[in-house]
Amino acid sequence: MNKLQTVIAIFLAVVPLLMPLTAAAVENDPGIWTTFSTTDVIRSDGEATRWHYWFDGQARYFDLGSGSNQWLARPAVGYEFRDGVRIWLGYARFRSRNGIGGVADETRVFQQVDWRTGQWRGGNISMRARLLQRSLSTGDDLGLLFRFMTKYTRPMGNDRTFVVSLEPFFDLKETDWGGRSGLRQNRLFVGSGWKIGERWSLEAGYMNQYLVIDNADNVSNHLGVVNFRVQL
Q: Where are the domains of the chain?
C-alpha cells in the first residue's frame, strides 16, 4: 500500500471513530443548504499573481418547517507560497435563528492552509486546516475552533465529478456560550459536480452533519446541499 492509499484508508476508517457512541440518543432532522461561492487568482496588469480571493454566501435551513435557519457571508484573501499550497486570512459573519425566533449573531476571524496531497485511482486528494476565533452575541468569551477537511474528487466524464469529503470540528477551549471543549461536530459529504458554463459550475449532494450537544440529545442533520460556483 502506497502513501496515498494509506491516506484514503485512514480517511475512511476514521469516520465511525469520530462519531459519539451509538448508544447516545440522537435527533434526526432534514434540512437544505444553498451556497454561492467564487474564488480566483488576483491579477496585476493582466498577469496572474500568487494572491487569491475567495467569497461565499450561504443560506442554511435546519429541521424544515421549524423556522431554524442560518445566514453566512465569508470573504478571504490567500497567497500561494508554493505550487498547490495556499494560506488564507478571512472573516465571516453569521446570523442564526432558532425555532422559537431567538437570534444570535456571530463574528469569526480565521486562518487557513490548504494543499493538494496527490492523486489516487484517477482522482485528486486535497486537505484543508482552518483555525477560527469566534465571538457570539450570546456570550462574552472568545471561542477557538479547529476544522480539518479531507476531500477526494474524481472526474466521471461529461464535465462531471464525484466528490466525497470528511471534516471534523474541535472546540479548543470552553466558553460561556459553547459548552465543553473537544469534538463538537462532524460533516460527511457525498455528491457530484457539474460544469454548467464557461465560468459556472454546480456541486450538489448529501451531507450528514453530526452535532454533539451538551445536556441534550445529539443531532444528526440530513442535508441536501447545493453549491453554485462562479469564476468572475
A: 3-230
